[in-house]
Design goal:
This protein is about 40% helix and about 10% strand. It contains 3 helices and 2 strands; from the N terminus they run H-E-E-H-H.
């Protein structure tokens, strides 16, 4: 998990380029794109060689938000808290959630079957 604290996006981009550029097999290749970042009055423009563009694309594709705990099996929502409780529909996930869901289903079936009987 990353502990990167972003206070200056321009510096973050420059740091990324500094870490990737030494490994570019064609550093003088024609740019395939340009990234512009502006923050607090400072601006940064980075021409993207094919190598740098690929590295940036892979870094972005590989990022997973620390708050991403998957999708809710009940409603499909993405807002599961740290206890795997769905903030949209209330379902509880994980091992405890499964145990609770099974128990609730057994109670529902038992109570449903019991209420269908006629008292004697």
């Amino acid at each position: 998990m990353s502990t990167y604290r972003v206070t200056d996006p321009v510096a973050v981009l420059r740091d990324f380029v500094a870490r990737v550029a030494p490994y570019d097999p064609e550093p003088d290749a024609a740019p395939v794109g340009v990234v512009d970042v502006r923050s607090a009055g400072e601006a940064g423009t980075v021409p993207l060689t094919p190598h740098l563009a690929r590295a940036l694309a892979e870094a972005l594709a590989g990022y997973r938000d620390p708050a991403d705990r998957g999708r809710c099996a009940g409603c499909g929502g993405r807002r599961l808290d740290e206890n795997l409780h769905c903030l949209d529909c209330g379902r509880l996930h994980g091992v405890l959630g499964e145990v609770i869901a099974r128990q609730a289903e057994q109670v529902r079936l038992r109570d449903g079957a019991g209420s269908a009987e006629t008292p004697r």
